[in-house]
Amino acid sequence: MDKFVIDGPTPLHGSVSVHGAKNAVLPLMAAALLARGKSVIENVPDLRDVGTMVKMLDLLGAVTTSNEGVLTIDTTHADGIEAPYELVRTMRASIYVLAPTLAVHGRARVSMPGGCAWGPRPIDLHLMAMEKLGAKVELSHGYIEASCDRLRGGEVNFPISSVGATAQTIMAASLADGTSVIRNAALEPEITDLIDALIECGVEIEGRDTSRVVVHGTTSVKPLRHRVIPDRIEAETFAAAAAVTGGDITITDCDPSHMGAVFAVLERAGCTIEVGPNRARVRGPKRMHATDIVTREYPGFPTDMQAQIIAALCTANGVSTVKETIYPDRFTHVPELRRFGADIRLDGNLAVIRGVPTLGGAPVMATDIRASSGLILAAMAAQGRTEILRVYHIDRGYQRIESKLNALGARIERVSQ
Ligand code: EPU
What we know:
- With about 425 residues, the chain is of the alpha/beta class.
- It is built from 14 helices and 24 strands.
């Protein structure tokens, strides 16, 4: 298991590029199963989670090859129907194979994902949607057993907005008999990317970028030919890194139109941000100002940036509050940040951060993808040496983050233990 040894403080300067979006590529890889033949996905990041999804596709009988960010998925013999516990437990997004497997083969057996580091993450909405489209769904011995003759178009009204359930339903509806209407669909750019990819494959979909998506099912989906959108969370993590280190960085190959909520918060906290078509320059202040944040579904402030912004606000001038409304228990980074000397009080789903003038390096432990990147930010701002254990979490969602940050002036060493 690798660890990071980080020496700080290091203001970041220079230019850094952003890879393809993890949370867009994972459903796209599953969507390749809707077609027979060779799908080609470009701008695929080299991440542990992508590797897990590749393993899943291999198990289902697809043949995958990857070359410099271009992933080819040949589904000619993808006849498997089972997603086993061993894979699903390492990555919840594996359940994305449920809809395409069910839609193509009329059967799917997918392990229930179970909880995650910050509490329960149910999948009831995924299952409800499959039932609304005509599937029979049973839970047996930790597995979802779903079956149908052919899925049929239906009305799916989500009581809350869910990225995963929306993607799952759009995939299922693509091969259903008739038209499906999805209400309260998630608006995240990764959903729009999936819709765009499926439209390119011949599926007729209306309501792109709206909460009412209408999918006209077809009998055959063409193989995908698609370039993944940039990873907004990676880009925003770099922006927060510039902010907390008082740096000046230009983030390239990104889409600033996806980053409005985070940029607004950083500007309120004293950053100067200039955006161009595929780039953004972020200049951090000498010391950030305190600010108040509430996480929300897109286009609100993303829960996937909550750990990083709390880390950045630990040294802000004044008292900040961060309310987590998507995952009320997603605070595993808070006890670790306290080890740096941060003053954070938790009151239910509200974190109250009293800014301290400086943090001090400390040994800490990564607990999930975004918590880990928050710890890296704190370490780059802190005086002295930090050791972050269990960095495999960060490799799930950031491609060689230490190389990119080191090129900006950070001092991060990956040590294999
Ligand atoms: N929810 C339910 N029932 C369901 C599904 C979701 O109650 O069947 C609830 C969740 O508990 C949560 C809310 O709905 O309170 C929203 O969850 P959502 O389904 O949108 O999350 P997800 O699809 O499981 C994706 C990302 C997460 C990100 C969330 C929220 C992927 C692979 N994962 O998860 O990303 O935090 O949306 O934006 O797209 C990450 O990248 O580190 C990560 C965790």
